[in-house]
Amino acid sequence: MTERRLLILYGSQTGYAKDTAYRIARQAWRRHFSVSVQSMDQVDKWSIFTATYPVIFVCSTTGQGEEPDNMKKLWRFILRKTIPHDALSGLQYAVFGLGDSSYQKFNFPAKRLFRRLQQLGGTPIVDRGDGDDQHYLGLDGALDPWLENLWTVLLDQYPLPKPIVPESVAPDPSCDIDYIDECIGASVDETELIPGTYLARLVKSDRMTAPDHFQDVHLFEFELDDSTQVPRWSPGDCAVLRPENLDSDVNDFLQQMRWAEHADRLLQIKPHDESIIPEWVPRRTTLRWLFTYYFDIMAVPRRSFFEMLYFFSSSENEKERLHEFTTSEGQDELQTYCMRPRRTIVEVLDDLPCSRVPLEYIFDVFPEIADRSFSISSASAVTPHRVDLTVAIVNYKTLMQKPRVGVCTKWLLNMELDRTVGLRFAKGTMKLPAGPTPIIMVGPGTGIAAFMSFIGDRVSRNISANYLFFGCRNEHGDFLHQEQLQKWISCNELQLFCAFSRDQENTVYVQQRIREQGDLLWSLISEQDAVVYVSGNANRMPDDVRQAFTDVVADHGVDDAAAYVQAMVKTGRYQEECWY
Q: Which of 20, 123, 163, 428 could cross-link with 236 by S-S, CB 3.0 to 4.6 Å?
């Protein structure tokens, strides 16, 4: 009999691809497949080459079309030129990508992976799926029809041995979780640091914008522990932090879930598959620890949260509402209720008092707190033990009564000085030229963060061909890093062009300053091979800035200016790192 087995591999940066992988796994379980779910870097790479069962890949996109961190090792491996062109001739595979079509390199990791697997002889089960955040139903707009097609093809090849498990039946929990009798003298397991983590102490937390400015931008300075080997990060690299939920939020949540009286009792966690829970999470711990350091109770819940919560509601009215949120037809309603107002898990559970999660299902319902990455504003060549972060505090209003606040920025704002946290480093997407080549930087708002490390590093090497276009609303409101920039200017180490958009009757943006300096920029680009860097909000700014550079090129006699700029992109002389 043909083996009814599936391997689902995910590459996830913020948790969406992982969530999607487990959603596919639950659907596979209902169709009586034996399923294993792992991150792409967890899996034994050679098992893909010997697999006699279908492999489903789910991967997100990060940065400017980059692979997520837990996909990079596998991706580098299958790119090896020494791999025979028919090495995957026995592999049946499917690929679903998660991305945003407003980005130029929409779903590039999924597209490249699909193509590479095919080049090595693999046989696609169905066409590649391209989830798009811009779809009015979000990623589900593409995922639902893709899954319907996938199951049609797979069930034709692997006929059902018995009827599909009804949607009304809850899947088995992924862990056994039991309270430990404290009389036996058990203690909490020690928490392990994630590999590559350095201890850092918060030494400065200062608001950079004026007190009456609408946006709070903070400078956080961390001092690395001298007792550990200090890493040398490169200009443009990022610091990675894993935030924590505040004690007050955790206490309220535990009370809400009726777990408060057991919050500090010892638990023993026994996952059915060790890949479900990261190694750094202790197997003997408490509910308070889990909901402080691991579970994201302040996240906006995804569709899978409602799918699982449905099974645990004791109210028919709540069950009916939860079921609607899990159907394709109910996705617009889910967007209105949850996604658009950014309603959190805590608020949803407050809205549904008869829906409570059993202890053994917490790892199946609640999402993991995602790492946050921030461009480093300091240069290791100048301050090797200090890491500066320029952070816009997330605080905004929706239809909800309370303002929406970011989990990480709230955690940072409430952090006391001298608190020690774990910090990791990740490579940025923008790379400096090795020599004294001129660089042109365009960094409105917090887009300036990485450029502070660029300039600091180059000044330390006596390179002064640094040109920065900075934009903000008001010179006296949100002129970030003004003091340090002026020091570099006074030493002839920087030329700065500012656009203060609200300081005059007509708004002025960085793209206008670029056009005004067209002769200078063309000289730098055409005669000195200058490299252009663009960093900041991804809404309209990157396109507007690229158009401004295209106009500068066209104004200096180049017939196909757009092709000229595109050639700069391909050769690494025009680099963007933008975000929403």
A: 428
CA of 407: how far to CAs of 62, 72, 219, 291, 371, in Å? Answer: 20, 27, 17, 13, 11
Say yes or no to pLDDT of 12 above 80: yes
The model's pLDDT over 488-540, given as tens digits with 9 standing for 90+, comes to 999 999 999 999 999 898 899 999 999 999 999 999 999 999 999 999 987 88
Identity of the residue numbered 121: G
> Is the dihedral angle over the CA atoms 404, 140, 330, 14 positive or is it negative?
negative
CA-to-CA dists, residue 240 to 41, 122, 196, 320, 377, angstroms? 19, 36, 10, 41, 13
CA dist., res. 458 & res. 432, Å (int): 9
Task: Give residues with Cβ within 8 angstroms of 508, minimum separation 6.
Answer: 499, 500, 501
The pair of three-digit structure tokens given for residue 66, joined into one six-digit string: 């980059």
User: String of b and e for 291-308 (b: at least 16 CB within 10 Å)?
Assistant: bbbbbbbbbbbbbbbbbb
User: Looking at the DSSP assignment, which residues form a beta bridge with residue 270?
Assistant: 176
Query: Residue 183's pLDDT is what?
Result: 47
**For 212, how many CA atoms within 13 A lie in the half-sphere containing its CB?**
2
CA-CA distance, 274 to 278, in Å (whole number)?
Answer: 8
Percent of the chain residues topping a pLDDT of 90? 82
Give the pTM. Answer: 0.90
Q: For residues 130 and 109, what is the distance between their CA atoms, to the nearest angstrom?
A: 11
